[in-house]
Amino acid sequence: MTTPLVEQTLGQLASQIPGATRLFRDHRLDFCCGGDQSLRHAANVRGLDAEQLAERLAEISQQPSQDTDWNQQPTAALIAHILTRYHARHRQQLEELTRLADRVEQVHGANPACPRGLGDFLAVLGEELDNHMQKEEQVLFPMLEQGYGAMADGPISVMRYEHDQHGDALERLLELSHGLQLPEHACNTWRALYRGLEELHDDLMQHIHLENNILFLRQ
């Protein structure tokens, strides 16, 4: 018997239903680091109606999708996508966002809504994420492309652990930025910063999902 959608994990749903990740992001459901939670449990924690979400997922699953089904793509193609779409992009994002955050604090530090300390936090996150991505690029991804299978279990465990840390960092990012809520009359730099932070948040969640719930499960 098919497992009801509400009892399937967020990771399973995100990888099986193109478009599910958008729904999860809209409702702040963690489908990457928290991908082993059932939809029912994750919805209950956030005070959401799991059955309504399941109905929406069922509707999405019947709609034509322009999203690539990475479950059907070879490992080399998935890794190439991760490298170009996420690794390269994250490095650009964090450099620019750190600069914007420092500028906002320099100009608006006296404003209670100012994300004080965000620039320093993003600089550290950028270093940690770059170190993480280098380990994938230099060690893990070549192993996976060469089909080393079980020999990659150790590096994968390390990457999963660091993904959990990145998930915690995303929560801290939202705390420092007051949930990405802009104050009235925010300047253009502040607005650009929060738009970029939202993009980084969504991109990093999708990046971790592709690795945790698709790439790493192939071994």
Automatic annotation (TrEMBL):
**What does the organism's lineage look like at the top?**
Bacteria, Pseudomonadati, Pseudomonadota, Gammaproteobacteria, Pseudomonadales
Residues forming coiled coils: none
A Pfam cross-reference name: Hemerythrin
Domain Hemerythrin-like: start-end pairs: 79-216
GO terms of molecular function: metal ion binding
Superkingdom of this entry's organism? Bacteria
Please name the source species.
Pseudomonas fluvialis
UniProt GO cellular component terms = cytoplasm
Keywords, A to Z, come to: Cytoplasm, Iron, Metal-binding
Gene3D superfamilies, from UniProt?
Answer: nmb1532 protein domain like (1.20.120.520)
Record localization: Cytoplasm
Name recorded for this polypeptide: Regulator of cell morphogenesis and NO signaling
Tell me the InterPro entries matching this sequence. Answer: Hemerythrin-like, RIC_family
Family annotation (CDD domains): Hr-like
